[in-house]
Structure formats: C-alpha cells, structure tokens
Amino acid sequence: xxxxxxxxxxxxxxxxxxxxxxxxxxxxxxxxxxxxxxxxxxxxxxxxxxxxxxxxxxxxxxxxxxxxxxxxxxxxxxxxxxxxxxxxxxxxxxxxxxxxxxxxxxxxxxxxxxxxxxxxxxxxxxxxxxxxxxxxxxxxxxxxxxxxxxxxxxxxxxxxxxxxxxxxxxxxxxxxxxxxxxxxxxxxxxxxxxxxxxxxxxxxxxxxxxxxxxxxxxxx
Length: 220
Description:
With 220 residues, the chain is mostly helical. The protein has a domain at 74-196: Photosynthetic Reaction Center, subunit C, domain 2, CATH 1.10.468. Helix content is 40%, strand content 0%. The chain is built from seven helices and no strands. Helix 2 packs antiparallel against helix 4 (115-130).
C-alpha cells in the first residue's frame, strides 16, 4: 500500500515537471490590430496661394476671391468693346442714322439717339468710364435681355445724369458758362463703383511711374 502511494506521488511529480519544461504549441495572441483610418490631406496654411479664401482663389466669401480684385487691362477691354461695336455696325449697315429705339430692341433711354452714335456712346461713355466690357450690363449676343442687374442700374444712372444736366446744374447761380456736363466718367473714372475720394497726394505720387532723371542728359 505504501509502495503504491509512493508510485502515485512520483507520477504526479513527473507530470508537473513535464508541464513546466515542455513549450506550449499554442501561439499567444498578438496585439489587437487597429483599423486603419485615412489621414486628412495636408492643407496649405491660411493666406497661402491656393488656400480657401486666399487672394486669387475661387473659394472666398460669396464665391469670389477674397481681397481686392485685380482690375482688368483697359486696353484689352477697349479692344473687345470696339470689336463688338464694329460687328453691330456691320449688322445695321444702312440704318446707322435711324433712332436707336427703332433699330434695337428694348431701348428705354436714349431712344432718339442715332443708332451708330448710340453704339459709340456705349463703348466710350459707359464701357470706358466704368472700366467694363459689354457683358458687364448685357447678355452677349442677346443685347435686349434685362437679366443683368447692372443694365437696370445704368438706366437709372442715365436718367439721373439727364436730370443733373438739364435741371440741377442750370439752377446753380454763377456757375461757369463753359462748365462741362456731368457723365459717367465724372464720378466713376474707370471704376465700376464711383470714387468717393481721391487718393492722398503722397500715395498717388508713390504710385506714379518715375520720370526722367533731373539734370542734363549724360554725355556720350
């Protein structure tokens, strides 16, 4: 009986030793795999070219670029308007001296002005004074349409000019006899909005191109 007990104890001890020395064949679980998340693309710093709302970008407030808009080249505007006027004059050939209200559709002011003079005024007075092309007020190719708000504004401004020149200015006492009548350029001076105040003389001088150097020209 005692020998059987010693045999059982020996077997149990051998089993415990085998469990401690035999390597486990079961792989230990590794670290949990985290789902990969897409990293946001790097954004340009605020104010950099191409950043939303930066000057020159198309995503600024109101869908327009932030900051002051670059003024278009007046020479390109002049060439474009002159080309349009030339095409329209060719279309109304033979009717240049007829009233604009009969030659063109939907004319509500300056109806009695000759058609050729009417077109020239649109180019030199409206376009040049406001610094705009024909599309600033009109739908190109569909000139009679009133879809552009600037067209309605221009009509009201023309009526204001008529009243100033015909009623207001003649009533001013002691005004110069050769006083020039007001027109679009009197206030706008090549800008879409009237110029409320002229620039300071110092800033105007700094912006002016440098003239020739003072003194006699250098000798050869």
